[in-house]
Design a protein that fits this description.
Length: 414
């Protein structure tokens, strides 16, 4: 036993055989084409990327074949599925096969998925065995920019992408008690199936259309009752608000059906798996807020109505800086006062009070010749004073948001 445990193996621990995608050491790894960092990819990950991933944007039909299990060489995902008697083929709008043929030799039946609303001139792929056809929406539009190119595509704002995750609140409770409890329950299989289908229709079908209206949104996953999107970070908070509003309209503003989410910042080379975990952690912050129905942004959760007001505050501050040529020091002042109040904890009075009064009064007096700008500064100061500085935190968070969007290329690269 001692020799078995402590004797070095003949093969193992070879960094050159580690797949850059899955991180596992495999003997079938090959060099990634055109990769300057000499990274390698295993046969399984390569099949996901090349056999399926590259062809999905042109795919109109996905054919799932069920038949006899086949013994093939391990590695590519199509060979793994074949061992279980499953084959998958992709077809374009003309009914032609895309990529490799991944179906089985002996097929009992097939399922053909239309992954979009078919056009009149689309040609349905033919099969020689019993086939069922169903529509299964799939957001398969792929932006032309890479992650690195996307984060550099804006003249202003920090050089980051946004990872967004959202899902329905209390879905388990909805399925368990949403139809009533005990003798009062009117739950049937058909009603449960209808509810599940309607939720899937929103997250797979309607969200597909929303995302495809955007030029640079990568739809990593939408389906069931949740989503995971990556895109320019400036576009993600407004997109999250729109999804929430559309979901509320879809459910007729049912108070028992709400959605929460969270966004985190990532850079172009950030691992996708880690991005999903980070965005999931942000989403969990929103889920932990009393009543849920919230969105987490910049490390803090806000109920949707509050977050929408926060966005309005941010836009107002940007207008003051950009359009009215107001002082950029306004943003730093609001952030600084908010930090001072936060550090004071439960104290009611502190330096943020007299410093805020002094700095705002001084700033307002400097713009006597610019009446619209002076009035906007007065309005912000009045809102903070009237609330006894309780609204200061929201103005501070809005100022931080505006600051991130207004940062120039020189500033963000320094």
């Amino acid at each position: 036993m001692h020799q078995l445990v402590f004797t070095p193996s003949e093969h193992g621990g070879n960094q050159e055989d580690v797949c850059a995608v899955c991180g596992h050491e495999k003997s079938d790894t090959k060099m990634l084409e055109g990769n300057l960092e000499a990274e390698r990819i295993c046969a399984s990950c390569s099949s996901f990327a090349n056999d399926f991933g590259k062809n999905l944007p042109q795919t109109a039909y996905i054919q799932l074949s069920i038949g006899e299990p086949e013994d093939r060489e391990p590695g590519p995902i199509e060979n793994v599925l074949a061992a279980f008697g499953i084959g998958i083929d992709l077809f374009d709008q003309t009914g032609n096969l895309l990529g490799i043929k991944a179906s089985l030799q002996s097929i009992h039946r097939t399922v053909l998925w239309e992954i979009n609303d078919p056009e009149k001139n689309w040609k349905v792929p033919q099969s020689n065995c019993p086939t069922s056809i169903r529509r299964h929406y799939l957001a398969n539009k792929i932006p032309s920019l890479t992650f690195d190119e996307m984060q550099d595509d804006f003249d202003r704002g920090i050089q980051r992408l946004g990872a967004l995750r959202m899902d329905v609140d209390n879905l388990g409770a909805l399925f368990q008690t949403g139809f009533g409890e005990g003798k009062e329950s009117n739950l049937t299989i058909s009603r449960l199936s209808t509810l599940s289908f309607q939720l899937s229709l929103f997250f797979e079908g309607y969200l597909k259309k929303i995302c495809e209206e955007k030029q640079n949104i990568y739809t990593v996953y939408t389906g069931g009752d949740d989503l995971f999107l990556i895109g320019p970070w400036q576009e993600m908070p407004p997109l999250a608000i729109r999804i929430r509003d559309e979901f509320a309209a879809y459910t007729c503003a049912n108070p028992d059906l709400s959605i929460s989410g969270g966004m985190t910042f990532i850079h172009g080379k950030y691992p996708l798996r880690q991005a999903a975990q980070d965005a999931g952690a942000a989403e969990e912050i929103a889920k932990n807020l009393d009543g849920k129905n919230a969105f987490a942004f910049l490390g803090e959760a806000f109920h949707w109505d509050t977050f929408s007001k926060l966005q309005t505050m941010k836009d107002r501050l940007k207008k003051i800086i950009n359009d009215q040529k107001g002082p950029s020091s306004l943003l730093q002042l609001l952030i600084q006062l908010d930090e001072q109040k936060k550090e004071a904890g439960s104290k009611v009075y502190g330096r943020w009070l007299w410093m805020g009064d002094y700095q705002f009064t001084r700033m307002i007096s400097q713009y006597k010749k610019n009446i619209p700008l002076q009035q906007d500064l007065k309005d912000i100061f009045s809102d903070i004073q009237t609330s006894m500085y309780e609204n200061l935190h929201f103005w501070g968070k809005a100022a931080r948001w505006a600051q991130l969007e207004l940062r120039s290329k020189t500033e963000r690269n320094s």
